[in-house]
Amino acid sequence: MPEKRDLVSTEGALPKHIAFIMDGNGRWAKKRLMPRTYGHREGVKSLKKIISRVSELNIPYATFYAFSTENWNRPEEEVTELMRLFDEQLDDLVNYQSENIRLRFIGDRSALDKKLSEKMGYYERETAGRTGTTACFAINYGGRDDIARCLRSLSLQLRDGFLRPEDISEGLISSLLDTGGIPDVDLLVRTGGEKRISNFLLWQLAYSELYFCDCLWPDFDESELELALESYSGRQRRFGRV
Questions:
Q1: CATH annotation of 17-142+184-233
Q2: Nearest to residue 105, comparing CAs of 65, 75, 70?
Q3: Mapping DSSP to helix (H, G, I), strand (E, B) and coil, where does residue 76 land?
Q4: Is this prediction's pTM over 0.90?
Q5: Is the dihedral of CA 95, 20, 84, 104 positive or negative?
Q6: Active-site residue identified among 71, 108, 199, 221
Q7: Beta bridge partners of 65
Q8: In Å, how far are 125, 143, 235 from 83, measured between CA atoms?
Q9: Which of 4, 127, 180, 235 could make an SS bond with 175 (beta carbons 3.0 to 4.6 A apart)?
Q10: Which DSSP state fits 22?
Q11: What is the Cα–Cα distance from 208 to 19, expressed in whole angstroms?
């Protein structure tokens, strides 16, 4: 176990909401002459380590980009394996009983297998009373799709007379997005060396600090997380102010 640095000695040193683009599973596997699906399974091990460490640090929210609306364009075999992996791991993730982890899922569930979608809803209800870190998983999620679904909801409420145009505010929009009730992202971490946000939480990242590292996700561990948090703690967040 790597040495755990003191990251909570300074008020405000830690984010309230940290988000992860878990990139590099396929490349990690390819380097080892293994199929991409092997990399995804190894990536789950890193995911569990990071959830545990985030919980230990009392970070209230952590969101993980598990499957995007564009990932359906990957080879059918890989998509099938990813869906199987989600189904398997949900049963394991809910057992974070001692760490008081609450589960939440964002994204359009209409395209998911009915059994998987129902299991997601069941575990959200089962863990709703927990008061520790909320681990939020983005499955069939896209930032543009999130905003489009929000706008459709608003348009229906306007059409039916439940809203007036002047009622529409940033706060109302935020409440109707998939992350309604969750604060905006303070820190986005992307592994794998790419430097883009890939249609992830577009509204919620408006004033996020961005951290990119070359480490491939299966190699991302507690020490890598703490490097990201140290970088965050040294930044000045002005939110448009001087």
A1: 3.40.1180.10
A2: 65
A3: helix
A4: yes
A5: positive
A6: 71
A7: 21, 138
A8: 21, 20, 38
A9: 180
A10: -
A11: 10
CA–CA gap between residue 3 and residue 136 (Å, rounded): 27
Q: Helix, strand, or coil here: 37? A: helix
Q: Which two tokens stand for residue 110?
A: 């209409």
Single-letter code of the amino acid located at 88: E
**Euclidean distance between CA atoms 77 and 224, whole angstroms:** 31
Question: Is residue 71 flagged as an active site residue?
Answer: yes
For 93: left if phi > 0, alpha if psi spans -120 to 50, otherwise beta; the answer is alpha
Active-site residue identified among 6, 23, 73, 160: 23
Scanning the chain, the segments in alpha helix (DSSP H) are 25-31, 36-56, 76-93, 114-127, 143-159, 170-176, 222-233
- 43: tokens are 């990536």
Domain definitions of the chain by residue range: 17-142+184-233
- pLDDT at 8 (0 to 100): 47
Nearest residue to 22 (alpha-carbon basis) of 88, 80, 66:
66
6 counts as catalytic: no
Collapsing DSSP to helix, strand or coil, 53 comes out as helix
Q: pLDDT tens-digit profile of 129-144?
A: 999 999 999 999 999 9
The C-alpha atoms of residue 213 and residue 77 are separated, in whole angstroms, by: 28
